[in-house]
Amino acid sequence: MESSATHQRLTDRKRVAIIGAAIEEFLAAGYDATSMDRIAARANVSKRTVYNHFPSKEALFAAILHQLWDASQGGDAPAYRADKPLRTQLLNLLDRKLRLLNDESFLSLARVAIAAGIHSPERARDMVARMGEREEDLTAWVRAAAADGRIKTDDPLFAALQLQALVKAFAFWPQVTMGQVPLDGKQLKRIAEAAADMFLARYA
Description:
CATH architecture of the largest domain: Orthogonal Bundle
Largest sheet: none
Mean pLDDT: 87
CATH class of the largest domain: Mainly Alpha
Number of domains: 2
Helix content: over 70%
Number of strands: 0
Number of helices: 11
CATH topology of the largest domain: Tetracycline Repressor, domain 2
Low-confidence stretches: none
Radius of gyration: 19 Å
CATH superfamily of the largest domain: Tetracycline Repressor, domain 2
């Protein structure tokens, strides 16, 4: 009889296989043409196994985006520190964010998500809601800095979205929508520093 540890390893392996197969399917066929049947066939598992791990295609897509986010980040985001300079902390967070936005797999799937969202605004709202179930690192940091009185805003979410927009205008939207090449390290550093300085000039 298999031990629970062996069973867990098998379950984990199947989950990894499903996510890998789903990424390939979404990129090859687009969101609408990808079915749970095709994902199951590509992963060499039953359709029931796919549904055991992910209740819907939307949930599976959200899980992929989360996994890419986690993989690009390398561990938990640094939390707000009252004893550290704001600019240093902010640059650290922006560097993590830019690494994700520069990841080719993430950009490819973002294109799939955007194309799917254009065809179905309702689905786009669902994807955004699922992605928003986990508070963004930058938002959590701005909220904590505001609570500590070092960032002056009565709407931390709005301020955090402004900050993200400063970064994405250079390091996400041109690559996703216009096929521009990902930026190099020097360009990313410049974007992070300019965004941090503008944000702190307004809110610190």
